Structure formats: structure tokens, C-alpha cells
């Protein structure tokens, strides 16, 4: 079914509101329901509530930001043992919040979501920061504190962030100050979905990638290249009619795209395959 005719669903309803009103944890768990159809979302929201309650009395109400970071870090990484999943980094399950809460392992963005959500319940000024290739959080005190949940809550300076990117990309990166600015919930969710899409495609699990791309388009209907990718994925699983529709939509939105010839060639091949079936 073409994307613009998809019926409303819980995910679409949950994100159809201003960014600040989106329940980040709930929406992340709705994403996980594609993989875990019987997932009890409220159970995991309650788990986050209980985690926050465990340290509420220790949190400095007067705003001792350094102390609060130390408390959160000790609780999440020392007591509960949350850690980066270095051994199986590209496992799609690292993108599912329920899996991360159960196993206490994840990738930078899902561990950051845990940190953000516990902080939100404690009314702490913690937000996500979407560095290229690595997601962290910032605590907005008198001076912003940058924290890396993937590395046990390591405190980072701006120079540390630059060096982290150099290490990730294997070469110096022209650093931009805006990379350290907070990102909204839609951006966090979109990045999570792109990670999950990539994890499925690496495994050639194209069928599971399809609803993920649909969710990206729900968050950002103007992400026209996702229409192209959705068409390609449908073609991979043999849904040639849907594949053609999505590719046609892509070309309608992007008639001057640099890959027009490639997409048109793909459409001709799909049409040939459909003709053989008739």
C-alpha cells in the first residue's frame, strides 16, 4: 500500500504532536513492537519510573549538576551495569528499548535514551546530542556537561568530542559547534530508525526493514529518498507492484535527482518481472 494511503496506527498517532509532547520512551517501545508483537509497553515505562524513584532522594534538588551526574552514572553503570554492546554492536536488537532495559547493553543512542528518560523523570535538564557516528547526552548546568552513556557515562569536553570523532572516522574531522546542540525527539527517533534500517539491510532482512522505512516517512514525509528505498525493499521481497508505486512517487518528488536513470532502469526491470507473472 502506498505510504500516503497508510492507515493511522499507534506509532503515527504517538508522533502526531509537537516535538516536546512526544513520549520518547513510549514511541521507542512502539518501534520494538514490530519485533515483539506482545510487548507490554507499560511494563517498561514502569521500569523507567522505578529506576528514577530509586535515586530521587539522592538527586540534589538545589541543582548540584556535577553531583547529579555522578549519582546517575553510579546508579546506571556501576549498580545496574548498563554498558555498550561492543561484542555484537550491529545486532538489530540493540535498537529496541525493551531489549536494552532487560539486558543492560545497547548502542550509543539507546543507552542515551535510557539516560534521558531517567533524567526526565527526575526533572533534570538532560537532552540528546547527535554527533556524527556517535550519540551522547548533555546536562545543561551552569556549563553544559557532555556525557557518553556508551562508555559508562564518561564526561567529555568539546575537545574530547572532537577526538572521539577522529577515532570513529579514522581521520581528523572538521568539527562544527552545532553538533553539540541538543536534538529533538523526532531527530532521536529518526536516527534510531535509520540505525535499525541499516542493521536489517546489512543482514539482508529486507522484509523487516520495510515497516522501519514506513516509520521514517511517518516522522518525515519529506524524506523522499526513503520512498526510493521503500520501493527497492519491496522489490527485494517480490512486491513488484508496491515497489513501482513507491519508485514513481520518488521520481514525482525528485524529478531532477542524480539517480533518476538508475531508478528508471530499476522500474523497467520490475515491469518486466511483473509481465512474466501475467
Put the structure in a nutshell:
This protein is of the alpha+beta class and 278 residues long. The chain contains twelve helices and six strands.
Given as residue ranges, the uncertain stretches (5+ residues, pLDDT < 50) are: none
Helix content: 55-70%
* CA gyration radius, whole angstroms: 21 Å
Tally of extended strands?
6
Gap from first CA to last CA: 20 Å
Question: Could you please describe the fold and organization of this structure?
Answer:
By secondary structure, this protein is of the alpha+beta class. The protein has two domains: 3-180, C8orf32 fold (Roll); 185-277, Tetratricopeptide repeat domain (Serine Threonine Protein Phosphatase 5, Tetratricopeptide repeat). It contains twelve helices and six strands. It has helices at 10-15, 24-32, 41-56, 65-79, 97-103, 108-121, 158-169, 185-202, 206-219, 224-236, 240-253, 260-277, and strands at residues 83-84, 105-106, 126-131, 134-140, 144-148, 154-156. Strand 3 and strand 4 form a beta hairpin.
List keywords for this structure.
elongated, two-stranded parallel sheet, 2 domains, alpha+beta, C8orf32 fold, 4-stranded antiparallel beta sheet
Amino acid at each position: 500500500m502506498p505510504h500516503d494511503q497508510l492507515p493511522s496506527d499507534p506509532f503515527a498517532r504517538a508522533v502526531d504532536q509537537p516535538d516536546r509532547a512526544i513520549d520518547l520512551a513510549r514511541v521507542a517501545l512502539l518501534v520494538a513492537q514490530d519485533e515483539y508483537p506482545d510487548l507490554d509497553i507499560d511494563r517498561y515505562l514502569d521500569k523507567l519510573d522505578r529506576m528514577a524513584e530509586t535515586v530521587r532522594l539522592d538527586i540534589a534538588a538545589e541543582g548540584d549538576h556535577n553531583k547529579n551526574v555522578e549519582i546517575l552514572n553510579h546508579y546506571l553503570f556501576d549498580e545496574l551495569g548498563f554498558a555498550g554492546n561492543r561484542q555484537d554492536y550491529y545486532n538489530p536488537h540493540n535498537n529496541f528499548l525493551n531489549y536494552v532495559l532487560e539486558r543492560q547493553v545497547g548502542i550509543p543512542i539507546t543507552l542515551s535514551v535510557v539516560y534521558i528518560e531517567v533524567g526526565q523523570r527526575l526533572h533534570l535538564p538532560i537532552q540528546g546530542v547527535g554527533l556524527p557516528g556517535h550519540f551522547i547526552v548533555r546536562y545543561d548546568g551552569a556549563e553544559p556537561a557532555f556525557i557518553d552513556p556508551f562508555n559508562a557515562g564518561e564526561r567529555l569536553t568539546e575537545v574530547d568530542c572532537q577526538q572521539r570523532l577522529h577515532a570513529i572516522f579514522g581521520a581528523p574531522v572538521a568539527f562544527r559547534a552545532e553538533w553539540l546542540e541538543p536534538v529533538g525527539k523526532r531527530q532521536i527517533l529518526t536516527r534510531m530508525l535509520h540505525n535499525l534500517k541499516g542493521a536489517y539491510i546489512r543482514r539482508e532482512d529486507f522484509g523487516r526493514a520495510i515497516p522501519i522505512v514506513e516509520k521514517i516517512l511517518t516522522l518525515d514525509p519529506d524524506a523522499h529518498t526513503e520512498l526510493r528505498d521503500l520501493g527497492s525493499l519491496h522489490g527485494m521481497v517480490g512486491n513488484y507492484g508496491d515497489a513501482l508505486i513507491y519508485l514513481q512517487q520518488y521520481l514525482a518528488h525528485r524529478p531532477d535527482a542524480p539517480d533518476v536513470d538508475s531508478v528508471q532502469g530499476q522500474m523497467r526491470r520490475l515491469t518486466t518481472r511483473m509481465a512474466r507473472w501475467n
